[in-house]
Amino acid sequence: MKAVVTSGVVAGRDLTVPGDKSISHRALLLSLVSNGNYRVFGLSSADDVMASYRLVEALGANIDAHEDGSITISAVGAEAKEPNNILDVGNSGTLIRLASGILSQMEGSTFFMTGDASIRRRPMARVTNPLRQMGAEIYGRQAGNLAPLAIVGRRLTPIEYRLPVASAQVKSAVIFAGLGADGATVVIEGEPTRSHTEEMLLAFGADLNIDKSDESNRISIRPSTLQARDIYVPGDPSSAAFFIALGLMTNTSMRVNGIYLGPQRDGFIKIFKGMGANLEIIADDNGNFDAISHTSQLSSIAIDGHDAAAFIDEVPIIATVAAICDGVSEFRGLGELRHKESDRIKTTLAMLKSFGIECGEYDDGLFVVGNSHTQSAVTRVVDAHFDHRIAMSASILTMVLGGRTEIEGFDSVSTSFPTFVELLESVGGGIEIVESDR
Ligand code: S3P
Questions:
Q1: Which of 34, 119, 201, 406 would disulfide-bridge 228, Cβ 3.0–4.6 Å?
Q2: CA distances (Å), 346 to each of 121, 211, 327, in order?
Q3: Is residue 304 annotated as part of the catalytic site, yes or no?
Q4: Which CATH number fits domain 21-224: 3.40.50.720, 3.65.10.10, 3.40.190.10, 3.30.310.50?
Q5: Which of 194, 268, 342, 387, when mutated, tests ligand 1's pocket best, judged by the most ligand atoms within 8 Å of its CB?
Q6: Are residues 399 and 428 in contact, defined by beta-carbon separation less than 8 angstroms?
Q7: Are 161 and 188 in contact, with CB atoms under 8 Å apart?
Q8: Can you tell me whether residue 192 is helix, strand or coil?
Q9: Which pLDDT score, from 0 to 100, does residue 40 have?
Q10: Residue 437: is its pLDDT beyond 70?
Q11: Do 248 and 296 touch, CB atoms closer than 8 A?
């Protein structure tokens, strides 16, 4: 599906973004390893999260939706049933990788999982390798690297596993598998990654231990009886980033309320501040944050890949901001971008080039020449390659530069940010959805 995005006068607003996607996935998936009924407030209704919703229902979890938007889940724990069809993860890498860990330890059941064209291109060996080391029986194309995956649940053996890539998804898959292993499974991460899985498992009473040192985090998990607890999902910082960026680049202020800004999710805030952003972060009463961005005099940035897991999802919008400031920005050490919903080094560059911005590719990143865009108000055409963050970055850039942008693959936006269109319109954007031949 194609959208034509046009910009009006950008009006500053108070916005609320949907619940955090990473936390929403885990809130649902925990029903497969815990017992009891629990309520989830603020769950994201993004397509990716809905794929988790359907997956846990297919395994027997009962979900009741309430009028206030919250849900009550009856966890299935050891009673999870073998689904009678293929599980469809849609576009969600988080879901297929976390579920692989959970399903691998469901002894006696067989599962089939697949997803859309992007999922079927993304590397799964990063999870199937450690899970197989634990004794999991997993099949997939390219010797278990590509979905569709078939998983036969087994009693697993604990391993000590040092993550070869900084990945919360891989860490989480091994931790979840560790719930069904005979003894203590240990995951060591040299570079910290988001820790929602550990925090949420601890809240459910897991026998989990985190040992932090300067060199690494060492997480150990033992089989545990988990008691479900109510979950409050904060606003998604990765969604907020688009509107925070818009406030920085336009003659207005944007406020996004109630977002999660815990460790490894606040990297883009630090980077924006490093670029000279006039950005206020205010703690609220629930342990979350309001972010207020104001018009800023921005300068270029050099990123070397250090702590990349803390901002990897925000690179498309950071690169977009880099296009609207003085100087040349360098993004290095970000090879993981090639394994996201699209090859985000290529798709970010192609998106920026559609605006006439000078930019180029490295093996492990990109550079962007600030303020090098074409001035004329022509219609540009962007192919988002069904990558939500590319489609949204192109929309925000249109708001900044004016004119009209045709964005192919715009429907991908609902994979993470179902209210994006509504919010963009509320700040002055125009969006017309047009069907395309694809
Ligand atoms: C996620 C982890 C990150 C991130 C993804 C969500 C998660 O991926 O890019 O959007 O919820 O665990 P990796 O762990 O593969 O880097």
A1: 34
A2: 15, 38, 21
A3: no
A4: 3.65.10.10
A5: 194
A6: yes
A7: yes
A8: coil
A9: 98
A10: no
A11: yes
Nearest atom of ligand 1 to the alpha carbon of 193: 14
Reading the block at residue 119, the tokens are 């999922």
| Angle, helix 315-322 to helix 388-401, in steps of 10 degrees | 20
From 122, 167, 217, 233, the mutation candidate for ligand 1 (largest count of ligand atoms within 8 A of CB) is 167
CATH 3.40.50.300 assigned to 2-18+234-434: no
Look at ligand 1, atom 4, and give the residue with the nearest C-alpha: 313
Closest atom of ligand 1 to CA, residue 21:
11
pLDDT in tens, 76-116: 998 999 999 999 999 999 999 999 999 999 999 999 999 99
**Where residue 374 falls among pLDDT bands split at 50, 70, 90?**
confident
Q: What are phi and psi of 169, to 5 degrees?
A: -70, -45
- Is residue 288 in contact with ligand 1, taking CB distance under 6 Å? no
395 touches ligand 1 (CB under 6 Å): no
Tokens at residue 223, please? Answer: 């089989």
Asked if the domains 2-18+234-434 and 21-224 are classified in one and the same CATH topology, the answer is yes
371 backbone φψ class: left, alpha, beta (φ>0; ψ -120 to 50): left
Q: Environment class of residue 285 by beta-carbon count within 10 Å: exposed (0-12), middle (13-18) or buried (19+)?
A: exposed
Distance between alpha carbon 297 and the CA centroid of its chain, in Å?
A: 29
Residue 155: is its pLDDT beyond 90? yes
H or E element that contains 110: strand 110-114
| Domain regions of the chain by residue span | 2-18+234-434, 21-224
Closest-CA residue, ligand 1 atom 16, reads: 167
Residue with tokens 């009693």: 155
What rounded mean pLDDT belongs to the chain?
Answer: 97
Question: What's the whole-number mean pLDDT along residues 239-245?
Answer: 98
For ligand 1, what atom is nearest to the CA of residue 339?
15
Tokens, residue 173: 């898959």
Site to probe by mutation for ligand 1, drawn from 169, 307, 415 as the one with most ligand atoms within 8 Å of Cβ, is 169
**Distance from the CA of 312 to the center of ligand 1, in angstroms?**
9
- Contact between 32 and 111 (Cβ < 8 Å): no
Q: How many angstroms separate the alpha carbon of residue 344 from the centre of ligand 1?
A: 14
Residues constituting the chain: 438
